[in-house]
Amino acid sequence: MLLKVKYKHASYGLLSLSSAVLMSLAWQNFYVLPSIFVGLVPLFILEKKIRAEQANSKLWVTLYTWFALLLWNIGSVWWIWNASPGGAIAAFIINSLPMVLPFLFYHNRNRKNGRENLLFFACLWILAEYLQFHWDLAFPWLILGNVFSYLPQLVQWYEITGVLGGSIWILALNIKFFQLYEAWEARTLNDQRGKWINALFFYVLMPIFASYYVQNLNVVPTQTPSAKFVVVQPNIDPYKDKFEGMSADEQLRRMLQLAETVIDSQTQFILLPETALQGGLEENTLLQEGLFQLLHSFLKVHPGVTVVGGMDSYRLYTQKEKPAITSRKVRDTELWYNSYNAAFCTNGGDSIQVYHKSKLVPGVEKMPYPYLFGFIERYAIDLGGTSGSLSTDPESRNLGFSKHVQLAPIICYESVFGAYVSSYVNKGADVLCIITNDGWWGNTPGYRQHFDFGRLRAIENRRYLVRSANTGISAVIDEKGNVLQATEYWKEAAFKADVPLLRGQTYYAKNGDWVVGVMLVLLIVSNIGSSFVLRKF
């Protein structure tokens, strides 16, 4: 009996481990994309076995499923450890736990009606992914649809569905392969061979054909107006030099010297990375700040040029203003201030436009649910940019002094939020500009994953994307997700680019994550259908 119990749990463990390996292999740095289409199949088999063999099935489904999802998180985003070991552990655990819920509800439903409710599971999984964009612990890095970021040619229809459409494709194929396994196990596969060939053809190839069809519909006119950019990658070590070794003045001078090597009379914009200006600039008096005076001196030599970049800033409250919940008090005074990870836009004039990062990194730039998760603060993770409890703008805001060219200032982590990036386009953004600092993670898949996610944002909105990273990769990406120019990682660089200005709105930009509504309707329908079946029997 003991050997039988051990054998059962060994098989559970093997199925759990198999799922984790298959899911991890699909992501950068392994690039085995087909494994994502069968990565959940072992967990479907696991749930069925435990349901048939264990009295306390809920406990074992929860434990073995969580084990698989935890290992997948570790296998795909292990690089967070480089920034903070304690923070990485917290991230792995907190991000994997919500992924268990669809399996647990799926298992409960299966126990009630004695069959696999796979549509019910798919709907719950999409709702759980949607939650990852919107709750205080938002970490949408491992949304299933993000896995196509390094092969964007396969998902040009993201301009209609966004990344959740890719998640649905992955779920549909996992379900079909699980049903194929069940047919093989029931010895009915040969009797239905034609049916399965047709089904797999439809589920595998039709989305790919649709992608190429949509891609060929979007051809940029040759007479499209363009903007002339200079992109700077200063390559300042975030651990040794960025916030300690080099002065803020030295850093800015390095960036301007790099820009000077490629700037010409046609240059309109210079894009600098996240926290290009650092040291805590007071927003009440930006024109008097030494860094802006240095920047404006440079712009006097290059009239007609606008500089966009990141800065570490704060704003003091007046005595009549009421501090926000994220405000901080100046020690030994009655003064309060807000701290920001911000983007600025200046052309050397008397006005400086500012946008404050709105999508903050949980546990780094904001404390999620502080009464519940206050312990996370000691494990703060550096995912790029300014750390600490920061204040935000309530919504996105474009930058630019000309109504003919509006830029979307997407700061680091914000580039993972598809619908939020689309909000810039809905407000008239002509070019997506990502400013980031990806050096925190070292030479790991982290910076490559973050870079590739930008390719999906370009497709969703059919906009060119210009990216300036402190340590790389800086690049220009076209509206189909193709990388036109790119720097090497951890190399000082600057380059110029002619960036077409595309206008109009995609279906996704206008309607956001509409597929969630569809899945919610299907969830309700599946519930009604299940209730009818239970009453019938």
Inertia-based shape: globular
**How many angstroms separate the termini?**
35 Å
CATH topology of the largest domain: Nitrilase/N-carbamoyl-D-aminoacid amidohydrolase
Classification by helices and strands: alpha/beta
Beta content comes to: 15-25%
Structure notes:
The chain has 537 residues and is α/β, with parallel strands linked by helices. Strands 1, 2, 3, 4, 5, 6, 7 and 14 form an 8-stranded mixed β-sheet that branches. Strands 8-9-10-11-12-13 form a 6-stranded mixed β-sheet, with helices on one face. The C terminus is likely disordered. The longest helix is centred in the first third of the chain and has 29 residues. Helix content is 45%, strand content 15%. The protein contains 16 helices and 14 strands.
Give the arrangement of secondary structure elements.
Layout (H helix, E strand, L loop, with lengths): L1 H24 L15 H13 L3 H21 L7 H29 L4 H17 L23 H4 L1 H23 L7 H25 L8 E8 L7 H5 L2 H13 L8 E3 L5 E6 L7 H12 L4 E11 L11 E2 L6 E11 L6 E4 L13 H4 L25 E4 L2 E7 L6 H9 L4 E6 L8 H17 L3 E5 L5 E3 L5 E4 L6 E8 L6 H5 L3 H22 L1
Parallel strand pairs: 1-2, 2-4, 3-4, 9-10, 10-11
Antiparallel strand pairs: 1-14, 4-6, 5-6, 6-7, 8-9, 11-12, 12-13
Helix pairs in contact: 1-2, 1-3, 2-3, 2-7, 3-4, 4-5, 5-7, 5-16, 7-8, 10-11, 13-14
